[in-house]
Write a structure and sequence with these properties.
By secondary structure, this protein is α+β, with helices and mostly antiparallel strands. The chain is 45% helix and 13% strand. Strand 7 and strand 8 form a beta hairpin.
């Protein structure tokens, strides 16, 4: 039985432990708290706390075990591209604790979808970050960041294991892949294999796949660039798989033609850093395969998070996440069943 991490995070002892670690770390940074350390929110996948200081608000995060690598990963990304993530003020990789400086409001902070210019800028900056990280694989993986299978055989084997795992849930368990869904996934294996073959044959070096890239996880820096948070869902894999979520949200929330000039502009901005290696048409041709495999990445993120906690701790809207993403991945159109943010 997995541990009830949310129960621990909700208790007084956790807050006391964090405070005992955080306050000396802030003092070494020359920061003096002006209020208590307070829990901000607890989800089944993480807990976030905050404290006000004479140098601004500081955020503290602990992820569930399968995503505790985020603390070290933020440290690595900050070292490679300063400003691309919030400044880490204290990091405990063993406990997965991360304290960072406040960045203000995210670029998407209310019901209104941000304008096209913001999406274009975020895609451009995340593509540049991925490009910069390709030479830092060893440091990234040393944090515990999982590497997603690359070869078609390994992708198919990974899929077979996950299908067996979610098929093993008893009838009536919402996490179960039912007979019709399992048949749909089986029918889609050739599509997934073809996509894996196409990406494996490309020249592109693996990099950071954020796996939840949208403007609610992006902040505008004073210099106009973007900084990114919430790397807990991340994987090390083909970089272009990160583009599906922002492009999909744009098409739906901004009501854009999938083949229109606005999405083409955003796509070109994302791909621009990679034109030092091949032409833009070759890059664009890889995106459909990357979009398909990105569905497997979402399934993997939810799989590991659900395995971290007792099932009764998983919020009801997320119980179907793994089978839903598997079916989407295998479908003739991997976007057809997706719901926009």
């Amino acid at each position: 039985m997995p541990a009830d991490h949310p129960a621990r995070w909700e208790g007084a002892a956790w807050l006391e432990e964090v405070e005992a670690w955080l306050l000396p770390a802030l003092e070494r940074r020359g920061l003096t708290p002006t209020g208590p350390v307070e829990r901000d929110r607890v989800r089944f996948w993480s807990v976030i706390a905050r404290v006000e200081t004479d140098g601004g608000r500081v955020w503290v995060k602990e992820n569930a075990p399968s995503q505790s690598f985020e603390a070290g990963l933020v440290e690595v990304v900050h070292h490679v591209v300063p400003g691309a993530v919030p400044t880490p003020l204290a990091v405990d990789r063993d406990r997965g604790w991360l304290a960072t400086a406040d960045l203000g409001l995210p670029m998407w902070h209310d019901d209104a979808a941000p304008p096209l210019e913001d999406w274009v800028g975020v895609l451009r900056d995340f593509g540049a970050l991925q490009h910069a990280l390709t030479g830092h694989e060893e440091a990234a993986l040393a944090t515990g960041l999982p590497r997603f299978p690359e070869s078609p055989d390994d992708v198919e084997a990974w899929l077979g294991r996950l299908v067996a795992e979610v098929r093993a849930h008893p009838d009536g368990d919402p996490r179960r892949l039912d007979d019709a869904e399992a048949a749909a996934v089986e029918a889609g294996i050739p599509r997934l294999r073809n996509a894996a073959e196409e990406l494996a044959a490309s020249w592109t070096a693996p990099s950071l796949q954020h796996n939840d890239l949208h403007l609610g996880n992006a902040f505008r820096r004073p210099d106009g660039g973007a900084a990114f948070i919430d790397l807990g869902d991340a994987l090390w894999t083909h970089p272009f798989t990160a583009a599906r979520i922002p492009l999909w949200i744009m098409a739906n929330r901004l009501e854009l033609d999938p083949d229109g000039p606005e999405l083409r502009r955003a796509t070109d901005a994302y791909l621009e850093p990679w034109t030092d290696r091949t032409d833009r048409a070759t890059l664009r041709a890889l995106l459909p395969a990357a979009h398909r495999l990105s569905c497997l990445h979402r399934a993997e993120s939810w799989r590991r998070l659900q395995a971290d906690v007792p099932v009764e701790r998983v919020d009801e809207p997320f119980l179907r996440s793994v089978p839903t993403w598997l079916v989407d991945a295998a479908a003739p159109d991997p976007h057809a069943a997706a719901v926009a943010w």
